[in-house]
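Researcher: Here's a chain I'd like modeled. Treat it as a single chain, no partners, no ligands.
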Amino acid sequence: FTYILMLHFQKLNNIYRIILLVFASNFINAQNYYLYVASESDDTVSLLKFDGNKIEEKERINVGTFPTEIEGPHGITIDPNGKYWYLTLAHGNPYGKLIKYSTETNEVIDETTLGLFPASMQISKVTGFLYCVNFNLHGNMKPSTVSVVDAETMTEITQITTGSMPHGSRISSDGLKQYSVAMMSGELFEIDALSLKVSRKLNLEDHSKMDHNKINMGKMIHSKVKPTWVIPHPKQNFVYVAGNGSDEIIEVNLNTWKISKRIKAEKGPYNVEISPDGNYMVATLKSSGSTAVWNLKDLSLLKIIKNSSSVTHGIAISTDSKYAFISVEGIGGEPGIVDVIELNNQTLIDKVEIGKQAGGIAFWKKEL
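Model: Modeled as a single isolated chain. Structure tokens:
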């Protein structure tokens, strides 16, 4: 009898063990991902949560100071410690603003004035300074600037002159260099994050296709490449530029400061990002409403994924390199959408509707 009881107990114990193992496995694999997305035509920012299967809007935050005007929230970034998020309001009188928010309460902490149409930005983990491009969308196509802001005190330290309509402000993984591209003058700029000066610039045009007669006559050449974004490789000495006008991704070797590859893309690449593990390169194809994914090791195109709506815009990639979150603007009165793409199999797995003209997007955190 005792022997039979022991057998039953052992079986029961094994069942509990299995249940515990399954529970522990599910607990370990259950990750929640959080990100912020700006809706430019609604003056709102959405806090989104993705649980690995479903993405949802947790909060919609009204931004701006003039309820009767659209102030155009455009760029968004989160500081390296995750305590604050920063938003550019592009439309001002005459200049735009940078607003600092708490990630704990999503309430305003401070603000400062920048240049004309401040756009994308990022914070250096070394200096703690925020570097924001002033896109200068209106007026004459003349050189614009990068604003350097002390993110702690929200004080603009200086403006560094670069090219015409700069965009795509991104910091190298070591925090020592800031890169941006000038859309209309077709140039790549490298700023030394410590000296706050332009250290190098590179013309991105394909000289074999340029009109040399116009160059010799001294006329202003509008870029055929129309670069809109730049992203440094997280582990290697390369940066990758979205050639929105030339339908290509341009690889630049930082050691030689020369173009090393021109990678053909479908029409209208706009933003380009690289997964933290260095395995994937993701580009939004704004004109075709699609997202392209490359294997970055050999630059082979893995897949082009049709997005849930038109006018694909921004990209944020999770810190574990598993998911790409894509903001899609939509057209007219359509809601903006954020698509979730699983990078391992390049599959669109879910979407969520947010405010109109979804644009700037930033990954915040991953947690159990």
